[in-house]
Amino acid sequence: MKQNIRYAAGSDVGRRREQNEDAGYASGRLLVVADGMGGHAAGELASSAAIAVMRELDVSLPEAGCDLEAALEGAVHEAARRLSELADLDPARRGMGTTVTATLWDGNRFALAHLGDSRGYLLRDGALYQITKDHTLVQSMVDEGRITEDQAAVHPRRSMVLRVLGTEGRAEPDMSLREADQGDRYLFCSDGLTGVLGPEILHEVLSTVIDPAVAVQRLIDLANQGGSPDNVTVIVADVVPPGEGEATIYRVGAGS
């Protein structure tokens, strides 16, 4: 039985940045968060260009029967090619890049593509699971047993990303295909949220705030109350029965 997703999305410039280099997109089939980097507005260009490519999936794919993983991975590769083209037009853009965490749904399953340190979480049966793995220096150090998770959270190089969508024209996203169960709740966000709020707070909000739009705003507000040194982008999506419909709210903070 095909299911729907009820979703909301929001983005805020945060407390210390002058512009918002995050970008996001949410629809009944596609959810994407991108966190740009590169300076001189190149980060904003990288994230928005990646989103522009990804959102084409909404109009180019048939309603059913497509290979979700292949379609989503192809869009990531096309986004990388687009960034390379933009850099060729202006050498100052060389080195710009963006994270990409994206899901493509068909009503029962979804493909997940992930590059960088934006994150995806699943709330199922009261438990919160991180379903993406950070492509960062500190995560590699944790994997090698050199530091603990607690040490990684305060490490001075915790923001160093090892894999992103960049201007070299290549992309190697983590890809997976997952089953969607009715009652599941998903959170996709930039590291501006998780750099401030720990999993306990994420779990509390996602578990207690029923309306996705209210949950999105609550998470952004809590990040800003915590000092929010980076832009904050949040998408919350619930798997709901057919006929319950969809809703989307996209809020952009002042100064973005």
From TrEMBL:
InterPro entries: PP2C, PPM-type-like_dom_sf, PPM-type_phosphatase-like_dom. It holds the Pfam family PP2C. Residues 6-239 form the PPM-type phosphatase domain. Residues 1-20 are annotated as: Disordered. This is PPM-type phosphatase domain-containing protein. It comes from Nonomuraea longicatena.
